[in-house]
Specification:
Blueprint: H1 5-18, H2 22-25, H3 33-42, H4 53-70, H5 75-89, E1 94-97, E2 103-106, H6 114-131, E3 138-140, E4 149-151, H7 164-185
Antiparallel strand pairs: 1-2, 3-4
Helix pairs in contact: 1-6, 4-5, 4-6, 5-6
Length: 191
Amino acid sequence: MLITHDTECALSILVELLNTAPEACGSERLPDVAALSAFVVRQEISEVDSLGPADLAVVHELRGRLREVFAAESVERAVELVNAVVAEAGTTPRLTNHDHHGWHVHYFAPHAAIGPHLAAELGMALAFIVMAGELERLRRCEAPGCARVFVDLSRNRSRRYCDSRTCGNRLHVAAYRARQRSAEAVPAPGR
């Protein structure tokens, strides 16, 4: 699957945004405008002007709608959800060359509000995934009790956890300890 640098960056922002939701991490990670501003800076989201409470509300609502794509029961439902997000964003594709990234396409109007900006950019990234027939790459972590999402960009689509160092490692350690307890419970031969 060919994923452009722009799409990969947008998918990374998408995952980070979705994983700020209370259902993903137990508490709201974008509780106020300051947190949203920090998110924009951390994710290097370009052409964002001032942010306010209305922007935060729009981003929270958009986050929920984008999360639905990861839970879509069919390609048709995913397409419906993505099309609605992109249509409401009023995409304005344009070539741009900034921050030493070379020529690439922005799908949002210059200096659009953060809601339509993210809806266009993230919606188009999801559209490319669906168009490539790769919807199964949009996953939820398989670790018990974890509701974080991720995009599996591995060649063989084998990624199972949002983070192999936390969720994956925790399950591997738990399995190892269970095997150790099981081995200790078995009496040694000849006793």
